[in-house]
Amino acid sequence: MNKRGEIMKAHFLTDRGLVRTHNEDSGGIFYNTSGQFLAVIADGMGGHQAGDVASQMATSLLEEKWEQSGKLHTPEATETWISNVMIEINASIFQHAQENEECHGMGTTIVVAIVIGDFMTIAHIGDSRCYFYTEEGLKQVTEDHSLVNALVQSGQISKDDAISHPRKNVVLRALGTEEEIDSDVKTLGLEEDDKLLLCTDGLTDKVLDEELFELMQTTDGLYEAGEKMIALANERGGEDNISLILFQYTAAEEEGEWLC
User: Fold this and answer.
1) Under DSSP, is residue 41 helix (H, G, I), strand (E, B) or coil?
2) Positive or negative, the Cα torsion across 35, 227, 240, 142?
3) What is the three-class DSSP state of 64?
4) What is the pLDDT of residues 116-146, one digit of tens each?
5) Contacts of 47 (CB under 8 A, 6+ apart)
6) What EC number(s) would the UniProt record show (predicted)?
7) How does the average pLDDT of the chain come out, rounded?
8) What number of helices (H) and strands (E) belong to the chain?
9) How is the chain split into domains, by residue range?
10) CA 227 to mean position of chain CA atoms
């Protein structure tokens, strides 16, 4: 079974960027009492430093609830668990914002990946993304809850227009900004050497999907690939914080267990 000291191929990287004075992103890689794997990336928003508060609250509360969770066995149970936890965390952040004037209006995007055996469950709110890399290529498996994506989906603008749209950073759904919120949840199967990328828009606003695919093909290692992604985003301006998690699935040979 996977234990805390055996993170084989999973890395969390974050960078303030070249313009912001502080980092409003948060994230981490965590294990529950059964050694099951969870990764999270959150991108905070709000006046003053409230974005920091929202993203850190989301990550810390998720870590706490995951470490206290029992062993999950099925996609259905995992989807139910993360859906309920998202509701609870949203309520906590929303209440904190209501009770603390300096935090009014704060919120955070969030994307979560839970790996159980040979499947992964993805949950997200906002425009932080999850990409799935397989032998067939790289696919974005989350749908941005953003204004420009809504415009693309309705046919009002093209995907190329969305890249340079002046309101491309307007998020339509965020954790903690409303009393009730829905998260998008889905489960996908995993095969040997599949890779996962979780990231904030500080990366995807600067680096194209094709470039992410090329960097994930590297044989230099996941951590090095992540460093190159951040360096490229900074080379192109680095106006936003940049955070990502890279993970590679490797099935263990003994007793049918797995490593992450």
Assistant:
1) strand
2) negative
3) helix
4) 989 999 999 999 999 999 988 999 999 998 7
5) 102, 104, 105, 106
6) 3.1.3.16
7) 88
8) 7, 12
9) 12-246
10) 17
Alpha-helix runs per DSSP H in 100-185: 147-153, 159-163
pLDDT tens-digit map of 60-76 = 999 999 999 989 999 99
- Torsion angle of the four alpha carbons 234, 216, 173, 109, in this order, in degrees rounded to the nearest 10: -60
CA–CA separation, 105 vs 107, rounded Å?
7
Whose CA is closest to 30, among 255, 254, 247, 253? 247
DSSP H helices, 118-221, are 147-153, 159-163, 201-204, 209-216
pLDDT of residue 37: 95
Q: Which of 82, 16, 89 is closest to 56 using CA atoms?
A: 89
Kind and range of the H or E element at 131?
strand 129-134
**How far from 18 is each of 22, 202, 220, 233, CA to CA, in Å?**
10, 11, 26, 10
Reported pTM: 0.90
In the chain, the amino acid numbered 26 is S
Residue with tokens 């890779």: 195
| Greatest Cα-to-Cα distance within the chain, rounded to the nearest angstrom | 54
Helices (H), 114-255: 147-153, 159-163, 201-204, 209-216, 222-235
Tokens encoding 49: 């430093």
Enumerate residues 6+ apart whose C-beta is below 8 A from 48. 102
How much is the average pLDDT of 219-235? 94
- Residue 170 DSSP SS3: coil
Q: Domain 12-246's class? A: alpha beta
